[in-house]
Design a protein that fits this description.
single chain; about 450 residues; alpha+beta; Uridine Diphospho-n-acetylenolpyruvylglucosamine Reductase, domain 2; Uridine Diphospho-n-acetylenolpyruvylglucosamine Reductase, domain 3; Alpha-Beta Plaits; 15 helices; about 35% helix; FAD-binding protein; FAD binding; FAD-bd_PCMH-like_sf; FAD-bd_PCMH_sub2
Length: about 450
């Protein structure tokens, strides 16, 4: 590490074990290895220098943003170098005319959105951690978020990337234009690759026109989780095009109520929170209100002010923190076709009952993307066998319904045990071949994603 420290500006390399431990973890329960050091990159040149050194000395490199990941993709291994990109926070360009921004990977997601809104624009992807997660981490995992039901996931807003490859070469992918089909889609390949193919040092992202008026927001309460799922299917089938459609189960609502005392009613088993940012948003919200009532909602309310709407959305964003207060969390994010969302919800409830496991579920319901969170005792190094058994059932059923193991959190370390069930031998071989082209020495985030 001394040679690397001498080749970088002073203060860029950390080696104190007590300090670097905090950079070795993400938000999972996983215990990291003991990395050799941390590089606090402040520029692309810092990344280039680090990767050239790592290639020369065959040292594994674990790229890292804010450490908000939920799949273990940025958990460090023994002897690795953690490459933190959190100091690369420049918005290099924001062009209202072209509706694009060029940003470095350490930019906080919500900060980019706020900068865009000063020009009547917005950055559409908004994971629940948007106030603390970074653009680089969102790109690395192809993060989704609450608005992706209408605007898509991070990949849908990524136009081009600046990437430092394993050997230190700089690769520019994509374009600044809304359309472009020259060559292979390397931008799409790197988005979601979890730092296994290269280190993203800048991104050209698409901005969109912000809604002219505040979105219309509604909240509906249901006596059963399945009824809430049926309401979601009805809303999407009716073509209401919500800009947000979030589902919270009873266990999640109880966790929030224990923390913030939201006045949860005994009969409420699920809550659906939806928004429309269309020009006829109030009419759309009223239509979604009707569909909720037709599918068993016991109570529906449409917000009367932007403040009320923010309070409802804030309730959803509290979900994971509320569960963390109750125990260690194994967070999953299966995604199924929207038409079978009620069936998937039923399967999760059945798995919880069969194995005696506490599962608290939220969902980006308009996408069919569910987050069943398996809660177990704090301080437990590994989830107990009954948690793994329940998780096996949930993943297997999702695949049987035509779904996928992860909609937005990524594979990381946590989903390695199930990856072969979805990928199959041919896809696995092809992906390993792609990895070998970009990272022949296998030093970029080894053991993650594939």
């Amino acid at each position: 590490m001394d040679a690397l420290a001498n080749s970088l500006p002073e203060g860029r390399v950390l080696t104190d074990p007590d300090v670097i431990d905090s950079y070795a973890r993400d938000r999972t329960y996983l215990e990291p290895g003991k990395p050799a050091g941390v590089v606090l990159a402040a520029s692309r040149d810092d990344v280039v220098t680090t990767m050239k050194w790592a290639t020369e000395h065959r040292v594994p490199v674990v790229p890292r943003g804010a450490g908000t990941g939920l799949a273990g993709a940025s958990v460090a291994g023994d002897g690795s170098v953690v490459l933190s990109l959190a100091r690369m926070t420049a918005i290099r360009e924001l062009s209202p005319a072209d509706e694009i921004a060029v940003v470095e990977p350490g930019v906080i997601t919500a900060d980019l959105d706020r900068a865009a809104r000063e020009h009547g624009l917005m950055y559409a992807p908004d994971p629940s951690s948007y106030e603390i997660s970074t653009i680089g981490g969102n790109l690395a995992t192809n993060a989704g978020g609450l608005r992706c039901v209408k605007y898509g996931v991070t990949r849908d807003s990524a136009l081009g990337l600046e990437v430092v490859l394993a050997d230190g070469r700089i690769l520019d992918t994509g374009r600044r234009t809304m359309k472009g089909v020259t060559g292979y889609d390397l931008t799409g390949l790197f988005v979601g690759s979890e730092g296994t193919l290269g280190v993203i040092t800048a991104a050209t992202v698409r901005l969109r026109r912000a809604p002219a008026t505040a979105p219309a927001t509604f909240a509906a309460e249901f006596g059963s989780l399945r009824d809430a799922g049926a309401a979601v299917s009805a809303i999407m089938a009716a073509g209401c095009q919500p800009s947000l459609m979030e589902l919270l189960d009873r266990a999640t609502l109880e966790a929030i109520d224990d923390w913030r005392n939201i006045g949860l009613e005994p009969q409420t088993q699920a809550m659906l929170i939806g928004q429309s940012d269309a020009t006829d948003g109030q009419a759309m919200a009223a239509r979604m209100d009707e569909l909720c009532m037709a599918n068993g909602a016991s109570f529906v309310a449409v917000s009367s002010s932007p403040q009320e709407a923010e309070e409802l959305i804030g309730l959803r964003r509290l979900a994971y923190q509320a569960k963390e207060r109750q125990g260690a969390c194994l967070v999953e994010d299966v995604c199924v076709p929207r038409s079978v969302l009620p069936d998937m919800i039923t399967a999760i409830e059945a798995a919880a009952a069969r194995h005696g496991v506490r599962i608290a579920t939220v969902a980006h319901a308009g996408d069919g993307n569910l987050h069943p969170v398996f809660i177990f005792e704090h301080g437990t190094i590994e989830p107990p066998p009954e948690v793994w058994a329940a998780a096996d059932e949930v993943f297997t059923h999702a695949l049987e319904l035509g779904g996928t193991l992860t909609g937005e959190h990524g594979v990381g370390l946590l989903k390695q045990r199930w990856l072969a069930l979805e990928a199959g031998p041919v896809a696995t071989e092809v992906q390993q071949g792609v990895k070998a082209v970009f990272d022949p020495l296998g030093i970029l985030n080894p053991g993650k994603a594939i």
